[in-house]
Amino acid sequence: MAAELSTLRTRLTDLLGDRMVGIEESLGELTVVVKAAGMLDTLTRLRDTAGFDQLIDLCGVDYSTFGNGDWQGKRFAAVYHLLSVAHNVRLRVRIFAEADDFPLLESVTGIWPSANWYEREAFDLYGTVFIGHPDLRRLLTDYVFVGNPFRKDFPLSGHVEMRYDPEQQRVVYQPVTVEPREATPRIVREENYGCN
Question: Would the pLDDT of 69 be above 90?
Fold first, then answer.
């Protein structure tokens, strides 16, 4: 297994050249970090030349508090989980969006059509915009939902709440009215609890 990963590492280094920012091995799999510029050509090479013909998964990541807040790199990334059926090997490809305030990456639906809903999910939950996506719209949250709930700076209680108003006979949205409360058990808060 280690020899196969070493061979794959050498092959990927030769194939990607200066497009590759870094490569690391973890849990018996390789993770390659590549530049966002020219990412479509890079991923097409991985499919056509290296044999990674299947996109198993694509997920968004917010690195803003990664490593206890010591993270110094770009904030948002998309991680592509690829599979080569012919070689029976997996590969993770991480691509960081250049701008933290408005993350943009190219859509890979032209390379792997299975990326369609994965990119919509990353758009909905992280706010990453995939340029060239055929139907980029929210997938898991409501259309009037404010923000992106998987971002580390999203408030735990959200921005608005939804409830049914019997007077208006419809669902209404209003600002969150959740009051912060102490979640410490009473026996810990009170010094003399249970003492006679």
Answer: no
pTM (2 d.p.): 0.80
- Given a contact cutoff of 8 angstroms between Cβ atoms, the answer to whether 94 and 31 are in contact is yes
* Contact present, 147 and 159 (Cβ < 8 Å): yes
Placement of tokens 């408030």 in the chain: 155
Reported for 137-142, long-range contacts at CB under 8 A and 24+ positions apart, including other chains, are none
Q: CA-to-CA distance for 18 and 34, rounded, in angstroms?
A: 9
Better-predicted residue by pLDDT, 182 or 81: 81
The radius of gyration of the chain from alpha carbons, rounded to an integer in Å, stands at 22
Domains and CATH numbers, the chain: 2-139 (3.30.460.80)
In the chain, the largest separation of any two C-alpha atoms, in whole Å, equals: 77
Residues composing the chain? 196
Q: Which two tokens stand for residue 161?
A: 């709440």
CA–CA separation, 54 and 11 (whole Å): 19
At residue 140, does pLDDT exceed 60? yes
Going from the C-alpha of 57 to that of each of 30, 90, 189, the distances in angstroms are 15, 11, 45
Chain centroid offset of residue 49 CA: 26
Collapsed DSSP state (helix, strand, coil) of residue 149: coil
- Alpha-carbon distance of 173 to 45, in angstroms, equals 47
Question: How far apart, in whole angstroms, are the C-alpha atoms of residue 156 and residue 123?
Answer: 19
